[in-house]
Amino acid sequence: MNIKGKTWKFGDNIDTDVIIPARFLNLSDKSELAKHCFADLRPDFVKEVQEGDIIVGGNNFGCGSSREHAPLAIKESGIGAIIAKSYARIFYRNAFNIGLPILECQEAVDSITEHDKVSVDLATGEIVNKTTGKKFSAKPIPDFMRQIIQAGGLVEYIKNQ
Amino acid sequence: MGMTITEKILAAHAGLDTVGPGDLIQARVDMALANDITAPLAIKVFHEIGRDHVFDRDRVALVPDHFVPNKDILSAQQAKIIRDFSREYGIKYFFEVGEMGIEHVILPEKGIVIPGDLVIGADSHTCTYGALGAFSTGVGSTDLGVTMATGEIWLKVPPSIMVRYEGGLQPWVGGKDLILYLLGRIGVEGANYRALEFTGPVIETLSMDNRLTMANMAVEGGAKNGVFEPDDITASYMEGRSARTPVYYQSDGDAVYEKELILDAEQIMPQVAFPHSPDNVRPVSEATHIVPDQVFIGSCTNGRMEDLRLAASVLKGKRVAKGLRMIVIPGSQYIYKQSIQEGIIEAFLDSGATIGPPTCGPCLGGHMGVLAEGEKCVSTSNRNFIGRMGHPQSEVYLVNPAIAAATAVLGRIGTPDEI
């Protein structure tokens, strides 16, 4: 599966409070949550994000609260994948569980700049920056996690067992 | 080869003799918990799986604590989802307003989680129960929904980092300062995917409430869990608390640690975490220029009996500085009542503080103390991210309860010795 889009670049330690501030957590409808994604940090995000766009983050992306509302809001906003240097562990798990593709690649993050056009091949982990022509390989996804993605998320995986 | 306490608990719950870092295991869960923010999504997942019962109605705890007493219609609707589900599925540990409190305060208090347990919670501060010698970690709603159905979870065994606190405690230093100091040393990603095991002479005499504070904030370093080996302090805390039999696991002498950190507690002064990260710490002496608009004492980090006792002892007979708002929220119904009996609530009220009902409240900018643009809050809670307690241009400074109380009197950050 290929994902193509423009990138939204973020720094290190993007926490779940800035991804979806707690004042919106009295909602659990994902399309409503998506309207408030990065509400304070990047008010332009929800207005301009397009289907298939890619978030590029630094170290420890998704740290803080366990709120699954964070990856849900990102996924529902139209983001096709996240590329980061590393992820906080609960966010990492949550993203796989809800079927939001996330990749780890230090070199790609350092090289990609805001609004570059990037494509990601989820099967191979190849990341291509169409703007600069540079190619990168993401860290392979553990087999077990791949099985969850192939099943279509954790719920489907459990149902199949 | 020996195992750490974390590895032993995980092995026992996976039906294995030994496990090591990196092993993927399918583990049996002793207690699965969620709150009014995470449970509605978990319940949706549970229904999607299509089971007609939870794996064990005595091993699921659903605690509405974030936006209760309900702050608006939407949060009331969310709490209703949990209430209806708990009734329909016969959930034993559902706590309504009047018997509830912050989940991580009441679950140890009521003996619902015990030493040796494997606890999974849809809340990042689920790691709190490591203080009892349990393995406990936070997950998202999907994981929790699946666990409610199956009673199991897949886990990757984390490598352990041993953190040894040598020496003795400086005045006005508690568990909060020990963990904040560690965060300052390792950073908010310093223990990502790891187990933090706290040990050493300082830990051996540290009270359970202080241990709960430390384990609670293990996640602020990215840790999967924070854990203490159970000892006499654990055993006396557990006395008469639970009908279940605790299991006291100890790390083996030849257990393998990825890293061992030795910290000299004599060098650790009361800590202040500056905006906007819990690892942005400085000793209190470097924070005395900070003049807050609000002081908050409470949360799953520092809303326990000892925390309120300590704060009240500092405040007793003093007045909260003019123009400063002080909010105290006991972590549970029991703590609230005990605080009344001990005269603690009276001391707070006499000093000019206001008391809220047990809830997470302002810690996450929910209600009962949300900050306006440009305001500063000195708080005993756990996170000071951008916008955490309200307006994105507000600021949160994290401290222990004694420093918070002294700050309320002084009108600027300071220690009880300065009053």
How is this fold's topology laid out?
The complex is a heterodimer of chains A (161) and B (419).
Chain A: E1 2-9, H1 16-19, H2 30-34, H3 45-48, E2 54-57, H4 69-76, E3 81-84, H5 89-98, E4 102-104, H6 106-111, E5 117-121, E6 126-129, E7 135-137, H7 143-151, H8 154-160
Parallel strand pairs in A: 1-2, 2-3, 3-4
Antiparallel strand pairs in A: 1-5, 5-6, 6-7
Chain B: H1 5-14, E1 24-28, E2 31-35, H2 39-49, E3 60-63, H3 73-89, E4 93-94, H4 103-109, E5 118-122, E6 135-138, H5 141-150, E7 152-156, E8 160-166, H6 175-186, E9 195-199, H7 201-204, H8 208-216, E10 225-228, H9 232-238, E11 259-264, E12 271-273, E13 281-283, E14 294-297, H10 299-302, H11 305-315, E15 325-328, H12 333-341, H13 344-351, E16 354-355, E17 376-379, E18 395-398, H14 401-410
Parallel strand pairs in B: 2-3, 2-5, 3-4, 5-6, 8-9, 8-11, 9-10, 14-15, 14-17, 15-16, 17-18
Antiparallel strand pairs in B: 1-7, 12-13
Helix pairs in contact in B: 2-5, 6-8, 11-13, 11-14
Short description:
The complex is a heterodimer of chains A (161) and B (419). Chain A is of the alpha/beta class.
Description:
- The complex is a heterodimer of chains A (161) and B (419).
- Helix content of chain A is 33%, strand content 19%.
- Chain A has a 7-stranded mixed β-sheet.
- Chain A is built from 8 helices and 7 strands, in the order βαααβαβαβαβββαα.
- Chain A has 161 residues and is of the alpha/beta class.
- Chain B has 419 residues and is of the alpha/beta class.
- Helix content of chain B is 31%, strand content 18%.
- Chain B has helices at residues 5-14, 39-49, 73-89, 103-109, 141-150, 175-186, 201-204, 208-216, 232-238, 299-302, 305-315, 333-341, 344-351, 401-410, and strands spanning 24-28, 31-35, 60-63, 93-94, 118-122, 135-138, 152-156, 160-166, 195-199, 225-228, 259-264, 271-273, 281-283, 294-297, 325-328, 354-355, 376-379, 395-398.
- The interface between A and B is large, with 39 and 50 residues.
